[in-house]
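cache lookup: miss for this entity combination. No prior model stored, computing from scratch. Input as submitted by user K.M.:
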Amino acid sequence: MSTDPDTGAVPLAAGYLRDTGAHPPMDYPGYRSTALRHPKRPLHLLPHLLTEVTGPLLGEGRIGETDNDLTRQHEGEPQGQRIIVHGQVRDGDGSPIPRTLIEIWQANAGGRYRHTGDNWPCPLDPNFTGVGRTLTDEQGRYRFTTIRPGAYPWKNHDNAWRPAHIHFSLFGRAFTQRLVTQMYFPGDPLFFQDPMWNSIPDEKARERLLARFDYAATEPEWALAYEWDIVLRGRESTVFESEVDDE
Amino acid sequence: MNAPGATTPSQTVGPYLHIGLPWPDGPFALAEGTEGGFWIRGTLYDGAQAPITDGLIETWQADPEGRFDHPDDARGARAWPAFRGFGRSATDERGGFGVYTLKPGGVPGTGGAMQAPHIDVSVFARGMLNRTVTRIYFPDEAEANAADPVLSAVPEPERATLIARPAEDGYRFDIRLQGEDETVFFDI
């Protein structure tokens, strides 16, 4: 694309599909902390103009050698079961998203975060920080080696426990594609009482947060493996300037 | 396997995002001390007007010529090589955040119309199942702001919540998730 030589007008790339229905509502009484932390006034529709269809392309020079292997960031081996987590990042059209920064953070094998605010009485692991990052390759693929995180209690409701999960943060290629989410493990018995899992209205959408046990990717006598694909918002069909003008 | 088109749902960053997301250079969209650089500082408040200490703000904006360092900006590469356009600041123990940046130029909108200089903002925190999105506009751009298609679509009384205030080292932009002065948030 180039600018119009006569008018200097900038052609706009197509916007991104609105994915209403996939995400949880901002106000979800089952998750108590949403009460004071969701906008009460209706949101205003933001058209997808240049600021929204572009976004930071990060990562170059930001990834260290052991950033995608959370088991090699300290002198010793962390406690717990070593796992490989891998998958592909695509957009809603099925196209892989290459060179996008993925950041993860998680609790240790006992369910404790290396955070001063986490006082659940389970030992910290001196050999586990629980933080990783990587860039997807040209096919949108990523891979982490880490430790399977434990479940932990929290104070949302009586006898509340978070299912084991890994936090994921992705940028995509546009401001509209930015996503922070959590990956869960299949067969976890704690979903029924977890408000974050249950906040997603559509059961099929909920299941998109579940990793798949991947026997083929396990490493003999070393690590179990899970595959988890992530889908960011897809593009609208191409918008022509004349249509935009008519808005 | 997920079918194409089925977006992965959002989840909260939780209370411990500070171990994973902040970067030492996160608040600096450009190197400190660069000519024209200034701070945008603010506080993130919840519905009880209490500061949110486990939040994170991200900003994305054009350079001073209104260009984006991105293939979908058809005008080509930016003219400000030291400028990242992206800022990330975790909130501190008083709910404060800050991004050191440059003032964006006007950005093309639709049909040859220009948008006023603005910064897109994402807000993340424990208790937020999805990010919220807002925009920062500048107080010294009255004419451009009046012509801005996004700002003019917001009812007049609420518009002020999108306009930063002048401050000693730049601008101040507080974000209120609820309350009488609730910040205007956008559905993107």
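stored under new cache key. Chain A touches chain B through 88 residues (CB under 8 Å).
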